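Annotated sample (chain length 166).
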Amino acid sequence: MAPAENPAEPRVHVAPDGGPRVADIAVPPGPSLAADCVISEAATRLIEADCERAYLVDADGRPVGLVTAAAVLRSCCVGTAGDRPALSIACRGFGRVDAATPVAEVIPGFREDARERLAVLSVGRLVGVVRRLDVLRVALDGGGRRRPHRLRGPHWRASALSAADR
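Output written by the structure step:
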């Protein structure tokens, strides 16, 4: 005898063809910084953008690191910020996913990993970010509806974004 389904529990729906692609649910990546910027510049940009993290990108728009406000603050507190490269405190092991990947394929990674977001790449260039919450939303509603981008807060102002982000 099969166990009865609990109607109060949400059901996870994934279309057999993979359903929506990561690009369908990705949000803008926020501000990015030149890979050769220094820690003091990264601190200023994070504050101006009111943002906790920013990707460091090379001249071709390829992400090479992720700088967080926590890493910048640690560096400032121990007096090592100044003109040191931001890449020296950046996380280089951040999660990445190709924009064409079906959302269903990233679900296991979010389930097993502590990451909250993945950088979305198209031809190696940073084009967005997909959050664990966005993937959960697709899994629960079957992927039939796309969440509208709600660009809120001062960190989404065009003036705070680099030319590569516009």
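Annotation: Residues 1-15, 144-166 have pLDDT under 50 and may be disordered.
Annotation: The beta strands are 32-34, 53-57, 63-68, 96-98, 117-122, 125-131.
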